[in-house]
């Protein structure tokens, strides 16, 4: 129940665009092999991230498309750093259970 079939890491090179001040913005990137049932976690950028920027959430809502919601906690528009991001992918064995009981 709720077991993962496999857990692995990828390091795609991404080029995000600007995020408005004090907000979040969803951005999409092509990553072949991603599945809509994958559970994703962005561990971070392999370098120095732009001050005030963070990866708030990651999903695969469409096959082969990585969706990351970037947040900007600054008073000005800012662009997340371009380069290699480390992403953990968990593939579930089957449908996730509704509860752990």
Short recap of the structure:
With 101 residues, the chain is mostly beta strands.
Layout: helices, strands, pairs:
Elements: E1 4-10, E2 13-14, E3 23-30, E4 39-45, E5 53-62, E6 65-72, E7 83-92
Antiparallel strand pairs: 1-7, 2-7, 3-6, 4-7, 5-6
Describe this structure in words.
It contains no helices and seven strands. Strands 1, 2, 4 and 7 form a four-stranded antiparallel β-sheet that branches. Strand 5 and strand 6 form a beta hairpin. The chain starts with a strand and ends in a 9-residue tail after the last strand.
Which features does this protein show?
mainly beta; elongated; four-stranded antiparallel sheet; three-stranded antiparallel sheet; 51% strand; 101 residues
Question: How many DSSP-defined strands?
Answer: 7
Shape field = elongated
The sequence of SSEs as H and E is EEEEEEE
Major beta sheet summary: 4 strands, antiparallel
Individual helix count: 0
Structural class: mainly beta
Helix content: under 10%
Strand residue percentage: over 45%
- Write down the overall mean pLDDT: 93
Distance between the termini: 10 Å
Runs in which pLDDT lies below 50 for 5 or more consecutive residues are none
* Radius of gyration using CA atoms only: 15 Å
């Amino acid at each position: 129940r709720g077991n993962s079939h496999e857990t692995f890491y990828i390091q795609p090179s991404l080029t995000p665009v600007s995020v408005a001040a004090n907000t979040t913005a969803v951005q999409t990137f092509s990553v072949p092999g991603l599945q809509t049932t994958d559970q994703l976690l962005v561990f971070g950028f392999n370098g120095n991230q732009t001050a005030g920027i963070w990866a708030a959430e990651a999903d695969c809502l469409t096959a082969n498309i990585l969706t990351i919601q970037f947040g900007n906690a600054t008073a000005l528009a800012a662009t997340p750093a371009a380069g290699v991001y480390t992403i953990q992918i968990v593939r579930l064995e089957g449908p996730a259970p509704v509860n752990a009981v």
